[in-house]
Amino acid sequence: MYDLVIIGAGPAGIALAAEARAVGHEPSSVLIIEKGIQHNWAIRQFYPAHKKTTANYKGHVAECEGLLCIKDMSKDETIRFFDDVIAHYNLNITYQVEAYDVEPVEDEDGRHFHVETSKGIFETRVLAVAIGVLGRPNKPKEYRLPPSLKDRLMFDITSRRIENEEVLVVGGGDTASEYVQYLFQQNNRVTLSYRQHEFKRLTGTNLTALMAMEQRGEVSILRGSNIDKVQDEGGRPHVHFKEEQYPARTFDTVVYALGGTTPVNFLHMLGIEFDSNRPKIDRHGETNVPGLFLVGDLTVSNTGGSIITAFNSAARAIKRIDKMMRVTQPSHSMV
Ligand SMILES: Cc1cc2nc3c(=O)[nH]c(=O)nc-3n(C[C@H](O)[C@H](O)[C@H](O)COP(=O)(O)OP(=O)(O)OC[C@H]3O[C@@H](n4cnc5c(N)ncnc54)[C@H](O)[C@@H]3O)c2cc1C
Question: How much distance in Å is there from the Cα of 305 to the middle of ligand 1?
Answer without folding.
Answer: 9
